[in-house]
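Notebook p. 47: complex prediction with adenosine-5'-triphosphate.
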Amino acid sequence: MIELEGLTKRYGEKLAVDGLTFTVRPGIVTGFLGPNGAGKSTTMRMILGLDRPTAGDVRIDGTHYDRLPDPLTRIGALLEAKGVHPGRSAYHHLLCLAQSNGIPRRRVHEVLDAVGLTAVARKKAKGFSLGMSQRLGIAAALLGDPRILMFDEPVNGLDPEGIHWIRTLMKSLAAQGRTVFVSSHLMSEMALTADHLVVIGQGRLLADTSMAEFIEHNSRSYVRVRSPQRERLLDVLHRAGITAVESGNGALEVDGSKAEYIGELAARNQVVLHELSPQQASLEEAFMRLTAESVEYHAHSDTPAPRQQWGDDWKKGRS
Ligand SMILES: Nc1ncnc2c1ncn2[C@@H]1O[C@H](COP(=O)(O)OP(=O)(O)OP(=O)(O)O)[C@@H](O)[C@H]1O
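Predicted complex, structure tokens below:
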């Protein structure tokens, strides 16, 4: 378990992390999300004692990182994939880590095998691709067989097979009862991997909730209906007090009613339906909506900012 209480970090004028209080629990994958510069890496560095908090506190299973006996056997972390001596082989990098932390040599072979690097174990790290470096970083995190694992952008640089492997690894680590805390900008991947989400913006906590609740509370759900008897359907819905908006491709979008109810209404009034599908926004849309106001760095373009786009879409119906 990782517990943060009022965790704060100031760099001069910049408040990078602003009073974060949350708990990362065992047995599930907790996703850590936030726009660029939100303070995710700073938070993770403070968890590992690499940065000293300006205020507040963070504990690993009740103890500060500095006071953990054999820290690698308590918490394993991937922060900076390229943080390996370039002249060292994968095997020697892991062996040095193992020897300085009282971890048996056989564990080096086990983790190299687990991350699929056995064949290149004797190659120097400077020749590694970003994906191979990520795998080596993950091997280092697993080395002490810790109960808590923390990964900063672990899928960065990985190919689809590697991304799938990471997803399976995170889920299996959590299923073993471990605490898994992972940051990522890849929303589609996070939606498939995380059970719980902690979202921050400009250093502040924006959400600490289950994935399902996060999407439900931060996105619009509606029912898409398509009928060859459109006018008749509109009339039936109108008489039932239901508002439908055109979606621009012949379909109608209905907010605030269940698909079952709309289907029954249509059947009762002998309206033929070609489509009746509940629509739920993606994690990406929910994330953009929640964090729209705390995005620090965004490109200027002619496209409206996410929040405006959404507001307008909701009223007019999407085109
Ligand atoms: N050593 C430092 N000195 C000064 N400012 C820093 C330092 N480290 C981070 N910051 C600032 O603190 C803020 C949070 O940075 P951080 O790297 O933690 O964000 P992040 O959420 O990990 O971003 P990204 O998603 O882009 O990796 C940023 O504004 C950053 O510029």
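Notes: The chain has three domains: 2-210, 221-280, 285-314. The pocket of adenosine-5'-triphosphate is lined by residues 11, 14, 16, 34, 36-42 (CB under 6 Å).
Next step: compare against the earlier run before touching the bench.
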